[in-house]
Amino acid sequence: MSADLMAMLTRIDDYRWEIPITYKPGMRVPGLIFSDEQMLRHIQDEQSLEQVANVAFLPGIVGRSLAMPDIHWGYGFPIGGVAATRVDDGVISPGGVGFDINCGVRLLRTNLTEKEVKPRIERLLADLFINVPSGLGSKGKIRLKGNEIDKLLLKGAGWAVAAGYGEPEDLEFTEDHGCLKGADPDKVSVKAKTRGTPQSGTLGSGNHFLEIQVVDEVYDAGIAQAFGIEEKGRILVLIHTGSRGFGHQVCDDYLKTMGTAVRNYGIDLPDRQLACAPVNSPEGQSYLAAMACAANYAWANRQCITHWTRESFSRVLGKSPRDLGMRLVYDVAHNIAKIEKHQVEGKKLTVCVHRKGATRAFPAGHPDIPEAYRKVGQPVLIPGDMGRYSYVAVGTEKAMEETFGSTCHGAGRAKSRSAARRSISGADVAAELAAKGIAIQVANIASLSEEAPAAYKDVAEVMHITDAAGISPKVIKARPIGVIKG
Amino acid sequence: MTRFELFDHTADVGIVAYGNDLKEAYANVAYGMFSLIADLKEVHEEIQRDIDIQALDRESLVVDWLNELLYIFDVDQVIFSRFEITALSQSQLRAKAYGEKIDTSRHQLKTEVKAATYHLLKVEEGNGFKIQVILDI
């Protein structure tokens, strides 16, 4: 980060830091970073804060250009960036969603305890590893023929449930019921469909995973109970994946469209990766329709994986998924743009909320969260790294007021991929996990080093900030006992 | 001459590729990207693909060139290990890419590259030619 910016950073309180609008000409709103002194030190040598300032250039941006505590250097938007733009005269930026559109996480609860699962963890992982296609270059086992992909793109998780992957009840516990409205397969290129068809129902690789976890700590027993996570020692399953090559292609296609749009609409931006078009322009509307298709692809993907996860548990533990109580707690997107209504300077405004590595965190009483959670708030799922722990938190009114109902999405990287590769080998990571009693199945052992726990910040530090700042208080913490990595 | 170097970016990976001319730099940036995806020593030249890219400018050509190769890798499962730029202008790139289908019994696959990005993208002439790009991993 430039020394200028560090000097300009204004401390509002222990957890809020402002980049003044005067930091560079062209900023339309100030920046606001949720962080503390210790976390800011992690990012002082990178350009993520500069990126917060760059996002403030977007036409129609309201409130502040926001960064969550897991902020790190992205390409265009910072990872952990949130920006709301007026639908009336603001823009939509595909870079504010990213290549992996609707990358997200979903959490399954179970009736199982650690004692019941631990002795069979190796068998369980081996079964899951075969049942859930993963790894670089892997193809799925779903055969989409003819225009079946269009149906999947229109209906999302609902398509998967209708095809026999999961229960109708799962949709109730998925953000937007697993189907973003306004999807139009005609706005998606043939290339995206060609790329997406064979990859449907695959975990992928990189930081995507499937983890078997144990509840390690309960911070709010009442809310945990409402989420169906009754006590310590309970087994959970966390699934992290997105829209695979389909989403990458949609983003790539529309970055090209937006590159031209920026010139046509005379939009001045500090970084080409922020390329955008007015929300209400043909380009903006087409992107939103294509992005919705990718979001739906991702929800169908996580829905199919959920089904196979239940199958594997059922097979290895000899009980039906229903007897195992494998209900969906929730599914959240953390790379997405959503048209939502928010209070901005005392007025109710329709805005386009870009969440790039940020999770929706709606409060109790919000009509968009499941009936069952209406009294407590939306579950917020925050994965950490595979050696330590993950969290479930809850959305709040404070998040609505300050962050357009958003919070962090993970630990955030501390070390670059190459630095991680240099400092630790994949075999060492496997040994470290084994020593902690964490079983692992991995498609590619070499890639394990990039995902080493030490390559990530401690997610507990991130959660401390969202908890203390009141935007998403902690509900439970869970630690992994089995990990599948693509 | 070094064909390419990697530089650190927190979540992703940057490549700086070099060339005696711009064509060579475009070939080397693709080579750099596939070196991240797989160990190229074991990749034979069994398949040849013709690629024709048109873009707004020579920076966009870099992004479109790399993303087109990623598309072929994804859809046809081909790893490329050699690139020949046959024609190049400010807005067009024609190339031949050589490689073979993924064979997991011989090929060591490494990192999944999601896409090439426009962030900090540079095409520079000076003492030799240089292309800088950040890949989303």
Keyword list:
heterodimer, A: alpha+beta, 7-stranded mixed beta sheet, B: 137 residues, alpha+beta, 3-stranded antiparallel beta sheet, 26% helix
Helix content of chain B: 25-40%
Counted by DSSP, the helix tally of chain B is 2
Helicity range of the residues of chain A?
25-40%
Radius of gyration of chain B: 14 Å
Q: Helices and strands of chain A: which structural class? A: alpha+beta
Radius of gyration of chain A: 21 Å
Q: What does the average pLDDT of chain B come to?
A: 95
Indicate the multimeric state.
heterodimer
Largest sheet composition of chain B: 5 strands, antiparallel
Q: What is the overall pLDDT average of chain A?
A: 95
How would a textbook summarize the main sheet of chain A?
Answer: 8 strands, mixed
Shape descriptor of chain A: globular
User: Would you count the extended β strands of chain A for me?
Assistant: 19
What does this structure look like?
Chain A is α+β, with helices and mostly antiparallel strands. In chain A, 33% of the residues lie in helices and 24% in strands. In chain A, strand 4 (61-72) and strand 5 (79-86) form a beta hairpin. The longest helix of chain A has 36 residues, at 282-317. In chain B, 26% of the residues lie in helices and 42% in strands. The two termini of chain B are 27 Å apart. The interface between A and B is large, with 46 and 38 residues.
